[in-house]
């Protein structure tokens, strides 16, 4: 039997075993589903954040360098394509070898998203 995925083992990420949809808290545009959550143990500038495999309906801003708790990264803010609200960032490059798994992944800040379905 297959091991349940992250979202299936955490009731806050599923609705009777089915993934939920996260959207922009400002305009409710769909951004991702809970089955794409890699981890909920991240922190953004507004508090709790989620590491996500893939998001949609966002615009990726210009790249910038940021010093974070786990190292130095090149990142780009991501904004809702509908209303323009910054909802998180995309990891573009990590300077630390043990943090390379984040490259190409996204952070969605919980304060800027909501369950829409």
UniProtKB/TrEMBL annotation:
Q: Which GO terms describe its molecular function?
A: metal ion binding
User: Which intervals hold domain Yippee?
Assistant: 20-117
Asked whether the keyword Protease is assigned, the reply is: no
User: Is Signal found in the keyword set?
Assistant: no
- UniProt keyword annotations, A-Z: Metal-binding, Zinc
Q: Which PROSITE patterns match?
A: YIPPEE
Q: Which family does it belong to?
A: Belongs to the yippee family.
**Which Pfam families does the protein's record reference?**
Yippee-Mis18
The name this protein carries in UniProt is Protein yippee-like
């Amino acid at each position: 039997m297959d091991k349940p995925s992250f979202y299936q083992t955490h009731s806050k990420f599923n609705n009777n075993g089915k993934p939920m949809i996260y959207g922009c808290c400002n305009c409710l545009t769909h951004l991702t589903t809970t089955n794409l959550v890699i981890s909920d143990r991240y922190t953004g500038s507004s508090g709790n954040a989620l590491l996500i495999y893939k998001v949609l309906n966002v615009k990726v801003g210009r790249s910038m360098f940021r010093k974070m708790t786990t190292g130095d990264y090149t990142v780009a803010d991501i904004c809702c394509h509908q209303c323009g609200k910054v909802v998180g960032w995309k990891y573009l490059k990590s300077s630390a070898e043990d943090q390379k798994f984040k490259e190409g992944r996204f952070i969605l800040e919980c304060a800027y998203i909501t369950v829409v379905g």
